[in-house]
Amino acid sequence: MANWCSNFFAIYPKDDSDLGKAQLKRLFAQLRKVTQIDYPEGTKEHGWYGLLSVMRGKEESEIVARGSIGNIQWDEDHIHMGTQTAWEPQDDIVREMLDCKECSELDFVFIAEEGGNEIYINTDTSGRFFVDRYVLDYDLTDATGLVGEGGVGGDREYYSTAESLLRQLHTICDRLHSWSYNNSRDGIETFYYKWGDLKGTPEEQCELIYIAIRDYMKEYDDLFGSCYISYHKFEYA
Predict the structure, then answer these.
(1) 128 domain-assigned
(2) Could you tell me the pTM of the whole model?
(3) 193 is in which domain, residue-wise?
(4) Sign of CA dihedral 146, 149, 154, 158
(5) For residue 7, what are the CA distances in angstroms to 65, 118, 125, 149?
(6) Structural domain count of the chain
(7) I need a labelling partner for 116 at 20 to 30 A (CA). Which of 24, 101, 164, 193 fits?
(8) How far apart are CA 190 and CA 194, in angstroms?
(9) Which of 222, 231, 227 is nearest to 140 (CA)?
């Protein structure tokens, strides 16, 4: 069974020319039309990802594409398209779709996430369409005393800056310190009292605090049960 990679594409004109705008509108109409194709039950699913290649005249037997096209939206100056693909983004399909005369003035960026293979990609270096740069995935709900007002439970959170991620990691570390003190568990407080002296960029500090929290939870895994924490940075590609 495949791990599914969640992808979001933004397709936009390279400049403010009338040609680029016209090409974008024409492409949107083509995408809406082709994704309405229904295949017989048991063959291909509705919204098969390979339809992007079919739209360019490619024979289905020649297409290697596993996945589906989700919502396609017109959003003022760009097309927003979501896809689910097997194992990896398969962004080459979109690249090939735009590699034609009628899309000569169009370009795209995308963001992709597949945790099983640790794929975290954001090609939007400007942050025009996709601002997420970090993802923090954690669940501390099994740790008594960590949930409630001002506490931290379980969540999957996205951050556009290292500074905002750092503030949340401070919050988690602060709560773990309180829990540690109340349960006579040494370890995190040594790091807790030193974090004001941490050196390096906000991103480097995030890494240090994350490692400290992760290692502390491992040390007392008998008390943290199924709790977990993971942190990833979206890489530019």
Answers:
(1) no
(2) 0.84
(3) 134-233
(4) negative
(5) 14, 14, 16, 34
(6) 2
(7) 164
(8) 7
(9) 227
